[in-house]
Amino acid sequence: MNTTAQNIAAAIETITERVAGVATYQHVGHETGRKYVRLFLETKSTGSRSVFYFIDTTTGNILGAKGWKGPNRKMIIGNVNEDNFGWPERMFHGGWGVY
User: Fold this and answer.
1) Residue 55 forms part of a structural domain
2) What confidence tier does 55 reach under pLDDT thresholds 50, 70, 90?
3) Which of 57, 80, 82, 96 has its CA 20 to 30 A from that of 5?
């Protein structure tokens, strides 16, 4: 496993833990495609899902979602290869604990 792949796995784990600490009625799921990993919130009671980030598997860029099927490639939020994803600490204390 290369460094970016390891960092993607660590990012998914970190984001999952931080959401679990804030939103107890939802959990983070992910699906890996050819180019992107889709991160989504799933409501435990209804099973409804809402995408919130995509991670580019080649660059490690964390991208905002354009919709369920793909990212907004112009909205780079951070990178899994940077400390704390390149996010200021305050981003971990937002409404969902990850923004």
Assistant:
1) yes
2) very high
3) 96
CA distances to 6, 56, 79 from 2, rounded to whole Å, are 6, 14, 15
The answer for residues whose C-beta is within 8 angstroms of residue 85's C-beta and 6 or more apart is: 11, 62, 77, 78, 79
Whole domain around residue 13: which residue ranges?
3-93
Number of H helices, E strands in the chain: 1, 5
Structural domain includes residue 84: yes
Asked, for residue 62, whether it belongs to a domain, the answer is yes
Report if residue 9 sits inside a domain.
yes
Contacts of 94 (CB under 8 A, 6+ apart): none
